[in-house]
Amino acid sequence: MTDAAPPADANTPAPAENGAEAPAGPGFRILAQFVRDLSFENPKAPDSLRIEGKPAIDLGVEMNAQGRKDGLFEVELRLTVKATTDAMTVFNVELVYGGLFALSGVAEQDIEPLLLIECPRYLFPFAREIIARATSDGGFYPPFMLDPIDFAGIYVSRQQQIARGPAEMARA
């Protein structure tokens, strides 16, 4: 017999330490994490492993979220990293890393920021490790380590672009 309690249901508040029910506050649970797509290319190997200096890095970050019929939410973090020199593509990594989340007690106006800021923030360390391992397995030492990403800043920038409207985005 153990003292461990079964996992709490996403819609059931956890009991407080004194046995009373804890006040239900907003929150989320990560139910699953997964690699949806992973691609690593090292097209000029082994020459790309002996370059002089540091390659130029082009980093792309996208966050997507969608609700499901079962009330859960899928969040995807799409990261692309391309390292190049004047002479060649050193490596190219594309990763779509996802998570399945259950939300509880979250106000409707807070759902989108939660899904596009906080959820990717929890997924990021795992995606970062996958990219580091892919570059290491591709022969690069030290492995490529992504710097932390400001998901709140990306979200705010995206909201500002949407607010400016399609006419402003067409000129950019």
Low-confidence segments: 1-16
Portion in strands = 25-35%
**Biggest β-sheet description:** 4 strands, antiparallel
The largest sheet has its strands arranged as 1-4-3-2
Helical content class? 25-40%
Features:
172 residues; disordered N terminus; alpha+beta
How is this structure best described in words?
By secondary structure, the chain is of the alpha+beta class. Helix content is 30%, strand content 32%. It is built from two helices and four strands. The chain has helices at 108-137, 151-171; strands at 27-41, 56-67, 73-84, 89-104. A four-stranded antiparallel β-sheet has the order 1-4-3-2. A hairpin with a 4-residue loop joins strand 3 and strand 4. Helix 1 (108-137) packs across helix 2 (151-171). The protein is elongated, with a radius of gyration of 21 Å. The protein starts with 26 loop residues before the first strand and ends with a helix.
Briefly summarize what is shown.
The protein is α+β, with helices and mostly antiparallel strands and 172 residues long. It is built from two helices and four strands, in the order E-E-E-E-H-H. The N terminus is likely disordered.
